[in-house]
Amino acid sequence: MEILVAKRIGFCFGVSRAIQEVKTILEQYKEVYIYGELVHNNEVMNELKELRAKVINSLEEIPQDANSKIIVIRAHGITEKEKIVLENNFLKVIDMTCPIVKNLVSLVRQKQKEGYYSILFGKADHPEVRGLKGNVDEKSLLITEKPLNITFKKVLIVSQTTMGEDSFKDFIADTIKINSFKEILVKNTICTETLIREKETLELSKKCDLMLVIGGKQSSNTKKLYNLAKERCKRTFYIERYEELEQIEIYPSDVIGIVTGSSTPIVELERVVNYLKSL
Ligand code: SF4
C-alpha cells in the first residue's frame, strides 16, 4: 500500500488564527463566547467547548451577563449591524474575520462607489456571503450561482472565497455570453488556500486507486474537494473520523491519496495515516 498525502493540510491560515485567538483568550479569561461555529468540525468545537468556549448562533442568544464577557467573530465575518449589536452588549468584541474575506468586502464596496454593479458568484446562505451582503450596498449586488440576465452595463464579477475555480471560469464566460455589458471588471477572489487544495485534489485523484477526503460533514470546502475527487476516482470516500475507515474496503495494492478540508485538524489526518499503516 502506498499513501500519498496532499502538501496543503490541516487548518487554513484564517481558521488557524481564529482558533489560536480563542485559545489565548481562554488561557487568560477562562471563558469566551464565539459568534457561530468557529469551524465546521465537531471534534475541534467540542474541545473548545470543554475549555469553556460558548457558541451563540444569533443575537437573540446574547447572554444576560454579556457586559462582562468577551466574544470572538469567526473567520467568515458578520454584518456591520450584527457587529454593532455585539459591541453594545459585550465587554469586548474580537474580530477574527479572515483578512482575505475582508479584502473581498473592501473591493466590492470600493467598486460600488465607482459605479460598478457587483455580481458575486456564491451561495446566498453561506455565512461569508451573508456577512458580505450586510456590509455593502445590497441594491447594487447580485448573489448567484447561475449566470443571469442583468440590465446594468458596468459590472464587477467576483467570487465567494471558497468556490471552485473551474466553476467560476464557466460562470464568467456564460454571464458575459448572455449579457451585453459595456464595462466588465473581473477579479478572481477565490482564496489561494482553496485553489491549492483543489489543485492537489485533482492531481492526486488522477493517480490514486482510492481517495480519502477528511473533514466535517457540514464543511462546504471539504464537500467540494470530495466532489472533485469523486469525478476522477470512483473509490473516493468522505470521512470525518478515522473509525469510519473500518467500513471501507482497502487492498494491499492500493495507492491511497489523502486530502483535508481547511477546518480539519492535523491530528485527525495523523490518526487516518496511522490506521492505514497498521493494516
Ligand atoms: S479558506 Fe481562505 S478565506 Fe476562508 S478562512 Fe481560510 S484562508 Fe481565509
Automatic annotation (TrEMBL):
<feature type="binding site">
    <location>
        <position position="220"/>
    </location>
    <ligand>
        <name>(2E)-4-hydroxy-3-methylbut-2-enyl diphosphate</name>
    </ligand>
</feature>
<feature type="binding site">
    <location>
        <position position="220"/>
    </location>
    <ligand>
        <name>dimethylallyl diphosphate</name>
    </ligand>
</feature>
<feature type="binding site">
    <location>
        <position position="221"/>
    </location>
    <ligand>
        <name>isopentenyl diphosphate</name>
    </ligand>
</feature>
<feature type="binding site">
    <location>
        <position position="221"/>
    </location>
    <ligand>
        <name>(2E)-4-hydroxy-3-methylbut-2-enyl diphosphate</name>
    </ligand>
</feature>
<comment type="similarity">
    <text>Belongs to the IspH family.</text>
</comment>
<feature type="binding site">
    <location>
        <position position="76"/>
    </location>
    <ligand>
        <name>dimethylallyl diphosphate</name>
    </ligand>
</feature>
<dbReference type="GO" id="GO:0050992">
    <property type="term" value="P:dimethylallyl diphosphate biosynthetic process"/>
</dbReference>
<keyword id="KW-0479">Metal-binding</keyword>
<dbReference type="GO" id="GO:0051539">
    <property type="term" value="F:4 iron, 4 sulfur cluster binding"/>
</dbReference>
<feature type="binding site">
    <location>
        <position position="126"/>
    </location>
    <ligand>
        <name>dimethylallyl diphosphate</name>
    </ligand>
</feature>
<feature type="binding site">
    <location>
        <position position="263"/>
    </location>
    <ligand>
        <name>isopentenyl diphosphate</name>
    </ligand>
</feature>
<feature type="binding site">
    <location>
        <position position="40"/>
    </location>
    <ligand>
        <name>(2E)-4-hydroxy-3-methylbut-2-enyl diphosphate</name>
    </ligand>
</feature>
<keyword id="KW-0411">Iron-sulfur</keyword>
<feature type="binding site">
    <location>
        <position position="263"/>
    </location>
    <ligand>
        <name>dimethylallyl diphosphate</name>
    </ligand>
</feature>
<comment type="function">
    <text>Catalyzes the conversion of 1-hydroxy-2-methyl-2-(E)-butenyl 4-diphosphate (HMBPP) into a mixture of isopentenyl diphosphate (IPP) and dimethylallyl diphosphate (DMAPP). Acts in the terminal step of the DOXP/MEP pathway for isoprenoid precursor biosynthesis.</text>
</comment>
<feature type="binding site">
    <location>
        <position position="98"/>
    </location>
    <ligand>
        <name>[4Fe-4S] cluster</name>
    </ligand>
</feature>
<dbReference type="Pfam" id="PF02401">
    <property type="entry name" value="LYTB"/>
</dbReference>
<feature type="binding site">
    <location>
        <position position="12"/>
    </location>
    <ligand>
        <name>[4Fe-4S] cluster</name>
    </ligand>
</feature>
<feature type="binding site">
    <location>
        <position position="76"/>
    </location>
    <ligand>
        <name>(2E)-4-hydroxy-3-methylbut-2-enyl diphosphate</name>
    </ligand>
</feature>
<feature type="binding site">
    <location>
        <position position="161"/>
    </location>
    <ligand>
        <name>(2E)-4-hydroxy-3-methylbut-2-enyl diphosphate</name>
    </ligand>
</feature>
<protein>
    <recommendedName>
        <fullName>4-hydroxy-3-methylbut-2-enyl diphosphate reductase</fullName>
        <ecNumber>1.17.7.4</ecNumber>
    </recommendedName>
</protein>
<feature type="active site" description="Proton donor">
    <location>
        <position position="128"/>
    </location>
</feature>
<dbReference type="GO" id="GO:0046872">
    <property type="term" value="F:metal ion binding"/>
</dbReference>
<feature type="binding site">
    <location>
        <position position="219"/>
    </location>
    <ligand>
        <name>isopentenyl diphosphate</name>
    </ligand>
</feature>
<feature type="binding site">
    <location>
        <position position="126"/>
    </location>
    <ligand>
        <name>(2E)-4-hydroxy-3-methylbut-2-enyl diphosphate</name>
    </ligand>
</feature>
<keyword id="KW-0560">Oxidoreductase</keyword>
<feature type="binding site">
    <location>
        <position position="263"/>
    </location>
    <ligand>
        <name>(2E)-4-hydroxy-3-methylbut-2-enyl diphosphate</name>
    </ligand>
</feature>
<feature type="binding site">
    <location>
        <position position="219"/>
    </location>
    <ligand>
        <name>dimethylallyl diphosphate</name>
    </ligand>
</feature>
<keyword id="KW-0408">Iron</keyword>
<feature type="binding site">
    <location>
        <position position="219"/>
    </location>
    <ligand>
        <name>(2E)-4-hydroxy-3-methylbut-2-enyl diphosphate</name>
    </ligand>
</feature>
<feature type="binding site">
    <location>
        <position position="221"/>
    </location>
    <ligand>
        <name>dimethylallyl diphosphate</name>
    </ligand>
</feature>
<feature type="binding site">
    <location>
        <position position="76"/>
    </location>
    <ligand>
        <name>isopentenyl diphosphate</name>
    </ligand>
</feature>
<comment type="pathway">
    <text>Isoprenoid biosynthesis; isopentenyl diphosphate biosynthesis via DXP pathway; isopentenyl diphosphate from 1-deoxy-D-xylulose 5-phosphate: step 6/6.</text>
</comment>
<dbReference type="GO" id="GO:0016114">
    <property type="term" value="P:terpenoid biosynthetic process"/>
</dbReference>
<dbReference type="GO" id="GO:0019288">
    <property type="term" value="P:isopentenyl diphosphate biosynthetic process, methylerythritol 4-phosphate pathway"/>
</dbReference>
<dbReference type="GO" id="GO:0051745">
    <property type="term" value="F:4-hydroxy-3-methylbut-2-enyl diphosphate reductase activity"/>
</dbReference>
<keyword id="KW-0004">4Fe-4S</keyword>
<feature type="binding site">
    <location>
        <position position="191"/>
    </location>
    <ligand>
        <name>[4Fe-4S] cluster</name>
    </ligand>
</feature>
<feature type="binding site">
    <location>
        <position position="220"/>
    </location>
    <ligand>
        <name>isopentenyl diphosphate</name>
    </ligand>
</feature>
<feature type="binding site">
    <location>
        <position position="40"/>
    </location>
    <ligand>
        <name>isopentenyl diphosphate</name>
    </ligand>
</feature>
<feature type="binding site">
    <location>
        <position position="126"/>
    </location>
    <ligand>
        <name>isopentenyl diphosphate</name>
    </ligand>
</feature>
<comment type="pathway">
    <text>Isoprenoid biosynthesis; dimethylallyl diphosphate biosynthesis; dimethylallyl diphosphate from (2E)-4-hydroxy-3-methylbutenyl diphosphate: step 1/1.</text>
</comment>
